[in-house]
Here is the input.
Amino acid sequence: MAYNEALANRLREALARERGVDEIKMMGGLCFMIDGHMALGIVGTELMIRVGPDGYEHALARMHAREMDFTGRSMRGFVFVEPAGIRTKRSLASWVALAAAFAKSLPPKAGHARAKDGGVR
Here is the structure.
């Protein structure tokens, strides 16, 4: 399954000020890593957001969000957001901020910006 390239460009723009961002093509989609941690991605036309277990229920309560069931099982801590939920720059930015905050809350992985500079951003 191909991913939405227009959405990929919007995500690149939304993540432009973040340090430690890498893009990886996987499972037919595109994934954005922050400091080596999966943060968000695109599966088809939907946005995949990693919010972690503590942010999961709150994220699911938002309009246009649903549980991520990529493997046929619900993956707690990840949600899919339908295109209607990321139509505006502001709505996309709010989802990106959630994913980035969760990724940055995790210990840095070796070889990434935060690990190299001692956490200084």
